[in-house]
Write a structure and sequence with these properties.
Elements (H helix, E strand, L loop, with lengths): L1 E10 L2 E11 L4 E5 L6 H8 L7 E6 L2 E2 L5 H6 L2 E4 L11 H7 L13 H7 L16 H13 L5 E5 L7 H16 L3 E5 L3 H7 L2 E6 L2 E6 L1 H5 L2 H7 L3
Parallel strand pairs: 3-8, 3-9, 6-7, 7-8
Antiparallel strand pairs: 1-2, 1-4, 4-5, 9-10
Amino acid sequence: MLTLENVETCYGTSQALFGMNLSVGEGEVVTLMGRNGMGKTTTVNSVLGIVTPRSGRIVFDGQDIQSQPSYKIARLGIGLVPEGRQIFPNLTVRENLIATASNRLNNPSPWTFERVLELFPQLAGRLTSVASVLSGGEQQMLAVGRALMTNPKLLILDEATEGLAPLVRAEIWKSLDYLKTQGLAILIIDKNVDHLARIANRHVIIEKGKVVWTGTSPELAESPDIKTRYLGV
């Protein structure tokens, strides 16, 4: 569904990605891991057209997208839960969800307002509250729900559980488990290796803008040196 081939991305004269290769298959859950500053968010921004790669190829659902504007890429079926949530702070919970509602790809079982509230019942009691007064966990649930309301084929989550309380993190992981059972392709950036290993089909670890290891959860569990070398602080 998503393929990056030898992608190189720069910010001005500073290069962030050096021949990045990554793939996410239909219905697959893939993690993108690495220490801070290694190019994870730049990879996401390159996919979404927020930054334009200098070279390489990005294909989503059979279409080259590396030169397309971000709004067109989103309409092809990529939903983003960005780092820091970035919900609309002055809109209510209801307005945040309705603002992004669409089913351009004619999903036969679309995500609707009611279905999002079933996934995150905590939001049901906050529908008239402006998003800025929500707790961090509620804001993250809203950010996930807002992305689902676009009915994406691929959901990308950048630091999905960062800064959340343990109980709230558990709710987010529970929702991702459910989305996996629904066959939604997911690319996750997160630091919780144990939860990532439980939910993901494959893992991709990057360092200094390029892939240094890829494998399955059992292979990662059998390679503690990999976690120490590339993920440890």
